[in-house]
Design brief:
The structure holds 2 protein chains of 2 kinds.
Chain A: E1 5-8, H1 12-20, E2 25-28, H2 34-39, E3 47-50, E4 59-61, E5 67-70, H3 75-80, H4 82-87, H5 89-96, H6 101-104, H7 109-113, H8 120-123, H9 165-171, E6 175-180, E7 183-188, E8 211-217, E9 226-232, E10 240-251, E11 254-263, E12 270-271, H10 273-279, H11 286-297, H12 309-326
Parallel strand pairs in A: 1-3, 2-3
Antiparallel strand pairs in A: 4-5, 5-8, 6-7, 6-8, 9-10, 10-11, 11-12
Helix pairs in contact in A: 5-9, 10-11, 11-12
Chain B: E1 3-9, E2 12-18, H1 24-31, E3 50-53, E4 56-59, E5 72-74, H2 76-79, H3 87-94, H4 104-119, H5 139-145, H6 156-170
Helix pairs in contact in B: 3-6
The chains are: A alpha+beta, B alpha+beta.
Chain lengths: 330, 173
């Protein structure tokens, strides 16, 4: 591992100022992804600014019925929170379907949003990768693509975003609060992660020195009827082939509103806006669900190695919607 | 450049000087001679390095020691009290919950931390209704909650009953 300096600031503003002054630096929180990337030489920061004990580790009720989740809340604590489990079960299920018990105990909300892709070529420093080394090429295109994107990819990068939590948050219309050298700003999660385009090295819209301080979950009563379903190569502790986060607002057998986000299919958690639009006002039937899935998947551009994801996602999405209507066990 | 830190390991206060790159696992094994946490994959995938870190199970291979200055750490060695094995350790022996034994300290510590999580009411991916108040620990739950600990000998068939025995011993219902 390349040597680095380690600093702990006294408050968030100092942490931001310290990092902003060091272009090669990085924030450290739980470290479950960053330390691993440093071990394999994919990320080589000159400076680590440790914010684990600085950032908020509490989940706060806001006056309008929203919840504010501190950036240092661990994945375990968020998944186990009674308010999350009753109001936003999709988020608790998404968190619990990711990583292992040990990792969830350490990994934070802020860090989870900033996870890097698990594309094997990104991790393998002996192969070209535009995300790791801009301009070097993409080894995945024409390579092993089982885990790669079918939506929104580019000629530069076909990697997928690995987070389950972010897929759940996206379905819930979460907002990311950020502190930067120029002050605070809030970013809808739907605008937080990027598609690769010709700059796949940029996973998010954050500028250097910007620090996630919290994530807000707006009040969404119908999210009590929500679910996360993940399909993977092992029964546990594996990244998604595809995943679906969904919430349905039903009245008299008709879909009043829907929130659907997809994981394992794009460079960012994918909000299924076409499927949502298709469902609004439609009867909650198998035909409507299949039509919604097909309308979303019409924009898929699968590769030979991951074309199976299109029918897999179609089946998974319709299964989740059916389960939400039935309201029964998984 | 070395930095001084203090780690409280298995009830003993230990001061040491480390390079900032040192993981908690390497600090324990290479600097303090505490070798029950094992280095398997060194990437957080196998769980052989599991310790209780400030009361919760964690992969010591992915923790930078410098970030845990002052932390309380319990390894498999520290689970025993006054020479008496922890009930989880006894259960692994009684059920032959290992073959080569390399993953065992991590398995045992992880199982102890896992039971604390169940007692705190935490759900898991195997929990049918995350909104429900109670969590019960059937074999499906044990397998899911222990999925961060790999055993390449494949002793799972005995590890699950061992954990179930230790659970039942704590909770007679």
């Amino acid at each position: 591992m390349k040597p680095f300096r380690y600093e702990r600031a006294t408050d968030m503003a100092e942490a931001v100022a310290t990092l902003a002054a060091e272009p090669g630096g990085a924030f450290l929180a739980g470290g479950t992804n960053l330390v691993d990337l440093m071990k394999v030489g994919v990320v080589e920061p000159d400076l680590l600014v440790d914010v684990r004990r600085l950032a908020s580790a509490t989940i706060e009720d806001l006056p309008d019925g929203a919840l504010r989740v501190g950036a240092a809340v661990t994945n375990s604590d968020l998944a186990a929170d009674r308010r999350i489990r009753s109001r936003y079960p999709v988020l608790s299920e998404a968190l619990l379907s990711g990583a292992s018990g040990q990792l969830r105990n350490v990994a934070t909300v802020g860090g989870n949003l900033l996870q890097r892709t698990r594309c094997v070529y990104f991790y393998d420093t002996t192969t070209p990768c535009n995300k790791r080394q801009p301009g070097s090429g993409c080894s995945a295109i024409g390579g092993y693509t089982r885990y790669h994107a079918i939506l929104g990819a580019s000629a530069s990068c076909i990697a997928t975003h690995p987070s389950d939590m972010a897929v759940g948050l996206l379905a819930l219309d979460a907002t990311v609060l950020v502190l930067g050298p120029n002050g605070e700003r809030s970013i809808p999660l739907s605008e937080f992660h990027r598609l690769p385009g010709d700059e796949p090295q940029r996973d998010t819209v954050l500028a250097h020195g910007e620090l996630i301080t919290a994530v807000d979950l707006p009040r969404l009563p119908f999210a009590e009827r929500s679910r996360y379903y993940k399909v993977r190569d092992r029964a546990s502790y594996a990244f998604a082939l595809v995943s679906v986060a969904a919430a349905l607002d039903l009245a008299d057998g008709v879909v009043q509103d829907a929130r659907i986000a997809l994981g394992g299919v794009a460079h960012k958690p994918w909000r299924a806006t076409l499927a949502e639009a298709s469902l609004r006002g439609a009867p909650a039937t198998e035909d409507s669900f299949l039509r919604a899935a097909d309308e979303e998947l019409a924009r898929a551009e699968p590769l030979a190695g991951n074309a199976f994801k299109v029918p897999l996602l179609r089946n998974t999405l319709t299964k989740v919607l059916r389960q939400l209507v039935q309201g029964g066990a998984r | 450049m070395e930095v001084g830190i203090t780690l409280n390991v298995d009830g003993r206060r230990r001061k040491l000087a480390i390079d900032p790159r040192t993981t908690l696992l390497d600090a324990l094994r290479e600097r303090l001679g505490i070798t029950s946490p094992k280095k398997g994959c060194d990437h957080g995938q196998c769980g052989a390095c599991t310790v209780l870190l400030d009361g919760r199970r964690a992969n010591s291979c992915l923790a930078l020691a410098i970030a845990y200055d002052g932390a309380e750490i319990v390894t498999a060695e520290g689970l025993a009290t006054d020479g008496d094995l922890h009930p989880m350790q006894r259960a692994f022996i009684e059920h032959d919950g290992f073959q080569c034994g390399y993953c065992t300290p991590g398995q045992v510590v992880s199982a102890v931390g896992m039971l604390q999580e169940v007692e705190a009411g935490w759900p898991s991916h195997a929990t049918v209704d995350v909104g429900a108040g109670d969590v019960s620990l059937g074999d499906e739950e044990i397998r899911e909650r222990m999925s961060g600990n790999l055993c390449r000998c494949g002793a799972y068939a005995n590890i699950v009953p061992a954990i179930r025995q230790a659970t039942d011993a704590r909770d007679p219902e």
